[in-house]
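call fold(seq) -> tokens
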Amino acid sequence: MKLVLLGTNGYHPNDTRHTACVMLPELGVLLDAGTGLFRIRNRVVTPRLDIYLSHAHLDHVAGLTFLLGVLYQQPVEEVVVHGEAAKLEAVRQHLFSELLFPVPPRFELRPLEGNEQPLAAGGTIRHFPVEHPGGAVGYRLDLPGQSLAYVTDTTASLDADYLQHIRGVDVLIHECNFPDELEEIARYTGHSWTSAVAEVAKAADVGMLVLTHLDPALMTDCDGQVEIARKIFPNVVMGEDNMELQLD
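ret:
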């Protein structure tokens, strides 16, 4: 099964990276809907799309407006956007305000219920809270023979409650918004820095760590950040836009 990183920046896109969006084309699943979502146009292979939002900050939801063009060109029968009820209401009321975007795409906003839901094409997805201004959730997908966790917009810490939810996954996609020297601003804004993310991956005994949600202005020495992380947790990949990872 293929995992595609469609957007690996936080805050805003730049010349090489768009904001948060991850896709599992064979499942018809997207994790977040940042500006990288426009890249799904030639990757849709299922009649249904399920989009799971971590929260409603603009760099994670702006791409929902791009669905209008995508759905016009692709034979998608159903699109469901999942998220916390208050976040979905903010999207409906503000992002798709008649004054901002008067012709909304055809999709259903469906609040997350319970802790675990079946995926349309098999497996399960679980959500769990992570600490971030305004609140956010992470996701764990357990698929036949493979597991994946997606954690973004939070402060990595060895005493964070979410460690219990990501423990032992084969692939952990985790935000790494700041380099180590900016730990103070990372804490202040509810984000993570390189060494802390690597420590979490090691403590949670994951198989592979994929770094994403980079600050577009400050995380410029990607090779250097990978080397810092690898001193703590060896199996690290720096996420790049359009990167494809094979999960099986």
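The helical segments are 58-61, 67-73, 85-95, 163-166, 183-189, 194-203, 222-230.
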